[in-house]
Input
Amino acid sequence: MLSYLARRVINLGGALLAASILVFLILGVLPGDPAEVMLGVGATPEALAALRAELGLTANPVLRYVDWIGGLLVGDMGTSLAYRAPVAELIAERLVVTVPLAVAAFAIAVLLAVPLGLFAATRRGGPGDVAVIGASQVGLAIPNFWFAILLILVFAIHLRWFAAGGFTPWDENWALALKSLILPALALALSEAAILTRVTRAAALDVLGQDFIRTARAKGVSRLGVLLGHVLRNALLPVATIMGLQFAFLVAGAVVVENVFYLPGLGRLLVQAIDQRDLAVVQNIILCLAGFVVLVNFAVDAVYAVIDPRPKESRR
Amino acid sequence: MRPRRLNLARRPNFAIGAVLTGLVILAGAAAVFFTPYPVDGVAIGSRLQAPSAAHWLGTDMLGRDMLSMLMKGAQNALIIGFVTVGIGLVFGAPLGFLAAMRPGLWSDVSLRAVDLVFAFPAILTAILIAAVYGPGVINAVLAIAIFNIAVFARVARGAALQVLGQSYIRAAEAIGRPPLDIALRHVLPNAAAVLLVQATIQFAIAILAEAGLSYLGLGVQPPDPSWGKMLKDAQTLIFTHPYQAVAPGAAIMLFVLGLNLLGDGLRDALDPRIHAIRLL
Output
């Protein structure tokens, strides 16, 4: 178990390193001059040279990379050109919106998908199963930003239960802050819930066909006991894997949904930073998001080791 | 494989999927030759009209016919879907086959690279590229294509590994067939089914990604119509003209639904054990 985790930690470090190199290569080394993009075609050579120097583009790429990572390790992400503020501070301010949004969406998706998937699996081929499958097909096909717009249409404009966008800061009124995250979280959760329902159903069907399920029933374990104690526990493995893989898409979805609801999160900052060609902000936010994804997958792997009910020898 | 009848038409998934996808392809193909109204003209006099006999789906804030915009949008979505899936297949499948047939350092490195790409959904890659080159449809296509290459490489490798374990491959090797010959004669035909199913799924995901990017202003650029951009425009009018947001969203949903059903139907017909990847 410990050596398993140690191997995972090394993989985690490698993945973070690789992600940072990838981001750096795309932003810093690819042909194309950010200074030129920022200033437009009419820029004078002097202005271009000055901006390149300010962006640090004149230094050797290897030195620039080492400088960036060295700064990251002590919490220094450089300065935003548009906001004239440290990038680390800007990101910290936005995290309090994006992280609760992602967590809430994830929780909604799991709470919807696991019971629905189990329900459908136990009623295979019946009307309940068909309804769940049909709903998940539709859920998969609805783009999250359209669902967000429809939610605004119904709950903000017609029913007036929620605001159509914006965010009340946590320290001003935490209940209102939470309320402003409900519609975005629902919009973000839809496609995740649809995927997880399908995966849960398929995994549960796999387990339901196994001999030990029949044995457990024959021993007198109740239907619900079998479902929770055996089916769910075994079906959680594939479900956890997909959850980990899907997390990257939840994060990407959050970028879009934040922009629909004008939430001051990382995704909104990211899209604004592109308009302002604020490279330091883009570079560090993308690395943060990729870092989240890598960390969550690490956590999934660690949880795997705990929830896997199969004997160690038979693990792949 | 023994030849058999697929009876595709009798599978409801496939049939519904084929009809929905067919409608979009028809609309997109028709838009190459004509649209009821031009989509590049601005007609302020007839802006924001409700659906009528003249404009079946009404007009937008610039007076452009919504149906014509949807048709051009379908054309753009189809082009982006075919290009990104095509690039993914052409580069990803050989990469996956190579990784399966030549295990070693190269294979390890490419598998790690594939894993890494999975941590960067197309939207994030597109944002990175847009930060250097500015927003544009080429960036969106590139970002979606890179993701597709990773997906097809993973699927092709899995399918190839399954085939390579068969004894007839060892027989082919024993009689001295060159690796390229084995790849083309044995691995590719056996992987074709799973690659086809995956292509349908990736097409659907490409449509969703492109719509999201265009919504953010990072995909198809105005005045070229795209479904995502139409939704962005509709959102600004949501308090006064809410119905504007219905048609473009429904178009995306029905097309993606059609592609997904088509993929599921194909999988059931070709081989229900096919293991496709679905990441959204």
User: Anything to note?
Assistant: Chain A is about 75% helix and 0% strand.
